[in-house]
Design a protein that fits this description.
It holds the Pfam family Peptidase_M1_N. With about 900 residues, the chain is α+β, with helices and mostly antiparallel strands. Helix content is about 40%, strand content about 20%. The strands form 6 sheets. Strands 1, 2, 3, 5, 6, 8, 9, 10, 11, 12, 13, 14 and 15 form a 13-stranded mixed β-sheet that branches. Strands 16-17-18-20-19 form a 5-stranded mixed β-sheet, covered by helices on one side. Strands 27-24-23-29 form a 4-stranded mixed β-sheet.
């Protein structure tokens, strides 16, 4: 699965610290036509109208007990989705799901349970014996008693269509009224579509059968054939419940193929497919998707020595998706924003390629070999995150993807690893709520960074040979940490236990700082690397690092003239090989980004960067320095205004477009969160002036021009700047080469709406111009951004007090609600937030709960009073669900960090 942290799509505001894109709302009610069913409609409800019951939150202990008792031979799942298009009696809410599970029990006579979250159950049969649904089904579990050695369970249920992106999501395209369905399950939402044993280590083969409306196409993990209105799909290999998948509707579908002949003469042919909504077909560059797909398959076959095992390879770009993508074997699903409706930079194409390759890596790391329980989620997500970039560099046109990784992905990891909720890469996952929250920067980006360090530690050949043995030894099985470490120990000849203890089983990030002593002649007498660890996580780790020395050249560039690769271990490590070198102006202690650490600078190096950062010739070294300066800003070691000044001075010289866009996001975050309140107005003027200057100076039609245009819209506040945005929209002003496509129009409209320069009628006219699902999301965000107390009250009610909006529109409303220029307007909602969040968490799904708790935390009310209110809530709600408390603690940490940074900035002199 791929998340969106650190990335943003056209028209989408970058998430501020502590915020994320994890939306969700409700979707369905019970089917009252089924008179024989157990009616659970009167129980307390979460999302989708489905009753909330404690059994939804499966614990690790329960899963282990069930895995010890059962082994599953196979599933037959029959879904009737014809109700999706309605029958004239109102919007359809449920569909019929009939599941047959064949399984064995190691202790005949024992009892267990199957998982199902559904409004109603019509019948349950165990080994030919009819059970009373009212007695055995409680809304999330089906009690199974007196099991035989071999068993057959048949469950006939009415399951709920979703509007949350969980389970069977139903989307109606406002452009043409067409209905589209898709499923999304991780970590435990397949039980919203069919009865099962919902845990990753009870793998089984699946046969799906789907009845669909006339004119629809249906896809699943296996190849499908249609007979009348019934689609039947080939049996899958043994896989986990959460990676089964169904996509159905009048999707636009494009095909291709991949062929590979191996050294032994065997030939592998993989049918390729790519699909999207019909409304997006004119924008769908399927040829590029297929190009990256074929390149990735070649790369992984070259390196993994295990042929792709799941038959076909379809990739579905679906609407209102909560995630970046999901690795369902044979049918990968993606957020449809990866189909670009307007002009985007190469960074967006690189990000899409990275996600395609990330999900492809999962076919081996995650689907073929799966973690036993969510404790070892890193066994799939860390590897996929690493392999996505590894393959992007090795197989595609995006040869600088490691720069993006160093600058964007690791920034997500550094933030997560300094939160109070930080955890080891191998986490302690007690239950499904823990699992949901651990799809985070530690599991993804830190885990991938640690693997990059591991490759430097054991060597690439040993690492890849370990992967090959791992696949062959554990194919279609489940593993733990020790299973991977054992093969890596075999191939590298190293003791992996010490490395694992330091890097996988402890939390926190180390800081590495150079110390340089010069001799009387001005050469290096001694160069050492000092390692520090935070008091909360005092682990000092072994680091394989490259130390680079840089000086200015006669041409005025700042170039590397010496490099040593060495092992840093303990509090201080002397790099003896650099003794006698010429005195450096800049020491970069993690040159080439081999390890995972926060880079610090000595005084000489920091002074050199202040004057000559733009003269650094190596783009990766430059990206690492930018990242280090950003970490210093977040840590209140560098005033926010100094970071902004560096961006304004050197940002226009940044050649890497992905780094430039990250600098824009960081500069805006520095202004909004870390600058002293008294300097924000002046800082905003400086950013707007600088952005407009670079916009006008950029090469016409270039991606740099587009990036500066979007950044200018983000920071535009003054009346002349807003006037220019208006004139660019209506065509009375132009900038040579700047194409005002529909996505850029919406990007310009949001700040106009937020500052009262574009009202409801203007936004309605723009929606008429772009009457699509994408246009509707943009309009909703802009409507919520307007500077009106009534607008804010309505937006709050729509998200917090109602479940009428789909997940995508909840996401858009929250994005529009919280505007930096409207701190006074949204101040009353700080108190309302703390009064509402426990109820929201209790009544809604975890998806919508996370969205509200993270997205509406009053981060912009950055005053000590807000910090005190947060502490009061935490003190008064010690018994609140741990996952909820974790989110509030994380937001509190972000707020405290912002206040510290503001205090640092307040001591700086304006410059």
């Amino acid at each position: 699965m791929s998340l969106l942290k650190g990335d943003s799509f056209p028209g989408q505001r970058p998430c501020p610290p502590g915020h994320s894109l994890v939306p969700g709302v409700r979707g369905a009610w019970q089917d009252r036509s089924c008179s024989a069913a157990i009616d659970v409609s009167r129980r307390p409800r979460d999302h989708e109208g489905v009753p909330h019951v404690p059994g939804e939150n499966l614990s690790r202990d329960e899963a282990r007990e069930r895995a010890a008792l059962l082994s599953v031979d196979g599933y037959d799942v029959s879904l009737d989705l014809r109700s999706a298009v309605g029958d004239g009696d109102g919007e359809p809410r449920t569909f019929r799901s009939v599941t047959t599970i064949r399984f064995r029990c190691s202790e005949p006579g024992a009892a267990t349970f199957a998982d199902l979250i559904a409004p109603s159950v019509t019948s349950v049969s165990l080994n030919g014996r009819d059970l009373d649904p009212g007695q055995v089904f409680d809304g999330s579990r089906i009690a199974l008693e007196d099991l035989a050695a071999e068993n057959e369970l048949v469950v006939d249920a009415q399951c709920a269509y979703s509007r949350t992106g969980e389970g069977m999501h139903r989307f109606v395209d406002p452009e043409d009224g067409e209905v589209y369905l898709y499923t999304q399950y991780e970590p435990a939402d397949s039980r919203r579509v069919f009865a099962n044993f919902e845990q990753p280590d009870l793998k089984a083969p699946y046969r799906f059968e789907v009845r669909a409306p006339e004119g629809w196409t249906v896809w699943s993990n296996g190849a499908g054939e249609r007979a009348d209105s019934v689609w039947r799909f080939a049996e899958t290999k043994p896989i986990s419940t959460y990676i089964t998948c169904v996509v159905a509707g009048p999707y636009h579908y494009v095909t291709d193929s991949y062929t590979r002949t191996f050294e032994d003469g065997t030939k592998l042919e993989i049918p390729l497919g790519a699909l999207c909504r019909k409304g997006l077909a004119p924008h769908f560059d399927a040829d590029d998707v297929f190009l990256v797909t074929r390149q990735g398959l070649d790369f992984f076959h070259d390196h993994f020595d295990y042929p792709y095992p799941f038959g076909k390879y379809d990739q579905a770009f679906v609407p209102e998706y909560n995630l970046g993508a999901m690795e369902n074997p044979g049918l990968v699903t993606f957020r449809e924003e990866y189909i670009f409706r307007g002009k985007v930079t190469q960074a967006s194409y690189e990000a899409r390629a990275n996600v395609i390759l990330h999900e492809m890596a999962h076919m081996w790391f995650g689907d073929l070999v799966t973690m036993e329980w969510w404790d070892d989620l890193w066994l799939k997500e860390s590897f996929a995150d690493f392999m996505g970039t590894f393959a992007n560099v090795g197989a595609t046109r995006f040869k600088d993807a490691w720069i993006t990784f160093a600058n964007r992905r690791k920034a997500w990891a550094y933030r997560a690893d300094q939160l109070p909720s930080t955890h080891p890469v191998t986490a302690d996952i007690r239950d499904l709520e823990d699992a949901k929250l651990n799809f985070d920067g530690i599991t993804y980006a830190k885990g991938a960074s640690v693997l990059k360090q591991l490759v430097a530690y054991v060597g690439q050949d040993a690492f890849l040979e370990g992967a090959r043995r791992y696949f062959k030894r554990h194919a279609y099985g489940n593993t733990r940490l020790g299973d991977l470490l054992s093969v890596l120990g075999e191939t590298s000849g190293r003791d992996m236990s010490a490395w694992a203890r330091a890097w996988l089983q402890t939390a926190g990030v180390n800081s590495l700082t150079p110390q340089v002593l010069l001799d009387p002649s001005g050469r290096v007498a001694e160069l050492a690397v000092v390692q520090e660890a935070p008091e909360s996580h005092p682990e000092e780790r072994p680091h394989r690092v490259a130390v680079g020395l840089y000086r200015r050249t006669p041409e005025g560039t700042l170039a590397r003239y010496a490099r040593v690769e060495t092992d840093v271990d303990g509090p201080r490590t002397v790099v003896a090989e650099l003794a006698g070198a010429e005195a450096p102006e800049l020491v970069l202690v993690n040159d080439d980004d081999l390890t995972y650490c926060k880079i610090r600078f000595d005084d000489t190096s920091l002074a050199a960067l202040r004057e000559h950062l733009g003269a650094l010739t190596d783009p990766l070294a430059r990206a690492l320095c930018w990242s280090a300066l950003w970490n210093m800003t977040r840590d209140a070691l560098l005033p926010a205004r100094d970071f902004i000044a560096l961006v304004l001075r050197f940002g226009g010289r940044e050649s890497d477009i992905g780094v430039l866009q990250m600098l824009h996001a960081w500069a805006n975050s520095a202004l909004v969160h870390y600058a002293a309140p008294g300097w924000r107005a002046a800082g905003g003027e400086l950013l707007a002036e600088g952005a407009l200057r670079e916009l006008r100076a950029a090469e016409p039609g270039s991606e740099h021009q587009l990036a500066w245009a979007r950044f200018f819209a983000t920071v535009a506040v003054a009346e002349p700047d807003l006037k220019l945005l208006t004139e660019l929209l209506d065509g009375t002003s132009t900038i040579d080469g700047l194409e005002m496509d529909q996505e850029l129009r919406w990007a310009f409209l949001e700040p106009l709406a937020a500052h009262g320069a574009a009202g409801e009628s203007v936004l309605a006219a723009e929606l008429a111009r772009d009457d699509t699902a994408s246009g509707k999301r943009h309009q909703v965000r802009c409507l919520a951004a307007r500077p009106s107390a009534a607008v804010k009250a309505q937006a709050w009610a729509q998200v917090v007090e109602s479940d009428a909006l789909s997940n995508a529109l909840v996401e858009a409303t929250i994005a529009g609600f919280d505007q930096p220029a409207q701190r006074e307007l949204t101040a009353p909602y700080a108190e309302k937030y703390f009064a509402a969040i426990e109820r929201v968490w209790r009544e809604r799904s975890i998806q919508i709960g996370m969205d509200v708790v993270q997205g509406l935390f009053p981060a912009l009310q950055d005053r000590p009073e807000t910090l005190a209110a947060t502490d009061a809530w935490l003190t008064e709600h010690r018994d609140a669900p741990p996952a909820l408390r974790r989110l509030v603690l994380e937001a509190r940490d972000d707020l405290a960090r912002a206040l510290n940074a503001q205090a640092c900035d307040a001591t700086a002199t304006a410059g």
